[in-house]
Each structure stands twice: as C-alpha cells, then as structure tokens.
Amino acid sequence: MDINSIFINTAQALFSPVTIAFAMAALGLAIHFGFVGLLNFGIAGFMAVGAYGYAISTLTFGFPWWAAFLASMAASALFAVILGIPTLQLRGDYLAIVTIAAAEIVRLLLLSTTWIKTTGSADGLVAYADDFRSINPFPDGTYGFGPWSYTANQFWVLIFALIVLALAALLLWRLVRSPWGRVIKGIREDEDAVRALGKNVFAYKMQALVVGGIVAGLGGALYVLPSSANPMLFATSLTFFVWTALLLGGAATVFGPLLGAVIFWVLQAFLGSLLPAMADAGLLGALSSAQAGALRFVLVGILLVVIVIVRPQGIVGDKRELTFVRK
C-alpha cells in the first residue's frame, strides 16, 4: 500500500472547496432542522438551484461574478418561498416527503432537454467561472505546503470559499442569538406556545426556510465553482451526505455542521483511499477495489448510527438543545 498517497488524499480533503460547500449546506440545514425543527430532506434541491442560478446568470445573461452570486442567492430564496407556501403547514414525515420530492423535481427539470440551451441537460454547464478567475489576485504558480498543493486558480477558489463560509457562520451565529433566533428555537420546541404569544409562526418558518436556503444555495454555487454544474451532482444521496455531516457535528449548533462536514469528507477521503489499497493488497478477501471503495459508505453509516445512539445531540451539541431522537 502507498501510505504516502493515502495520507495526501486524506489531507487534501481537509481544505477543499467540496468540504467547504458541504459545510455551507449543513449550515443551511442547521437553520431548517436544528433551530426550527423543519425536516427538510430536499437540501440538494437548494444547492442545485444556487449552483445553476450562478452558472445560468453568467452564461445566459452575462452577469459579472458578483452579480451571479447575488442571482444565486435570489434564486435560492425564491425556491424557498415557492416550496414553503404550500408545505410549511405540514409536519414531520409529510414535510420530509414533500421536500425530497421537490429536490428530485428540480434535478429532473435540469435533466430535461426542453431547456437544453439554458441548463445543458445531462451534459451540464461549463466555462461559467471565467469572470471569477479573471479577478484572481494570485499570480500563476503553486501554492500551499506539505500535502496541500494548489494552482493559482484552485487557491483563489479555496480562499474565496473560506471567506464566504466564515461570513455565513458569523451571520448565523449572530442570528440564532438574536430575539429572532430565540423565537425560531421556541417554534422548534412548541410552536403552539409561540403562537399563543402572538407570534406569526408561519412567517418565522418562512424566514428561516429562506435564510437557510440562501446559505445552502451559496454552498451549491461554491460546489460547482471549481469545475462544472451537472444535475447528477445533486442526486438524493447528496441530501443524506449533508444530513450526515449535520448530525455528526450537532444539529442545533453553528460550529457543529462545520466540524461534521470536515469529519465526513476526511473520513470519506481516508477510507476511499485505504480500502481500495487494502483490496489490491489482498487484505479484504475477494472484494475488488471498486467494491472496497463503496464499502466506505457502509462504515460511515455505521459511525453515524453510533453517534446517534451514544451522543444524539452531535459531537459539539448541547444536551439542553435539540437531539435527533427527540424528533
């Protein structure tokens, strides 16, 4: 086994746009589920809307990069409103079913050939980040140290994504500690009691759905910023990856989703490199390297089950806050 290669692949997952994008999506989901109690299983739909909002506004309408990010946020907010108006009266399993169906509808619409000139259908969209790369302040060369090595464009995307993540985390941290945050946490615990105090529960839920949706949409834009936007990137499995990151770190926290995303993708990278190498070395019996690579999802799933049983509030969660088993 090439231990050095396994170490490099694992270390690179620690600082990558994909990890940051999942942290953004998990932050948005923390607002929906952790602080309001909305069982949103359509987070991949928000990411897809944000990603394609950025790509289409650049390629079709010629928006500059900063306006494209604003368009991505606006598209995510609009999707949240359209989804929220008919569904926020639903509770529990019913809301989960509707949201996962909405995400699949978005993905299938992007796959449709009806708007192929706009969405690219199954081929997706490329070459929409040229304007963003044109403002790269780093000259050509190699950046990083040790196992972390980036081209100038890769380093610029990474730095920009880290700045966006830090600003989003700071904003949400302030929001959940504001009077607005106390209301939405009250809705999570007992919405009838909050309604009895004269608060418009539907309006607060809608606001939370929009805020979380915008953050997840920005995560989708960052997800496709380094390469291309393709509908298959936003399959249902993406939603469950984000949920895994959220529950690992802690649903009712701001720092928890960030930690959960890092743990999830570092484990994925480590096991995705280690298990195929063990299979090639004959250490996993008759398993092929492809089968061994898929085994990492089983192992991460087992870890999630253990976390939910042993520490249902997540790694950095507070027992006084929401725990997964209470829902």
Question: Would you give an account of this structure?
Answer:
By secondary structure, the protein is mostly helical. It has one domain (9-326): ABC transporter involved in vitamin B12 uptake, BtuC, CATH 1.10.3470. The protein contains 13 helices and two strands. It has helices at residues 3-14, 17-35, 43-59, 65-87, 92-111, 116-119, 130-134, 152-176, 179-196, 201-224, 236-249, 255-280, 289-310; strands at 142-145, 148-151. Strands 1-2 form a two-stranded antiparallel ribbon. Strand 1 (142-145) and strand 2 (148-151) form a beta hairpin.
Short description:
Helices cover 70% and strands 2% of the residues.
CATH architecture: Orthogonal Bundle
Decide which structural class fits the backbone: mainly alpha
Q: What is the share of helical residues?
A: over 70%
Oligomer: single chain
According to DSSP, the number of beta strands is 2
Order of helices and strands: HHHHHHHEEHHHHHH
Mean pLDDT: 90
Write the layout of secondary structure elements.
Elements (H helix, E strand, L loop, with lengths): L2 H12 L2 H19 L7 H17 L5 H23 L4 H20 L4 H4 L10 H5 L7 E4 L2 E4 H25 L2 H18 L4 H24 L11 H14 L5 H26 L8 H22 L17
Antiparallel strand pairs: 1-2
Helix pairs in contact: 1-12, 2-8, 2-10, 2-11, 2-12, 3-4, 3-5, 3-10, 4-10, 9-10, 11-12, 12-13
Tag the structure with descriptive keywords.
327 residues; mainly alpha; ABC transporter involved in vitamin B12 uptake, BtuC; two-stranded antiparallel sheet; 13 helices; disordered C terminus
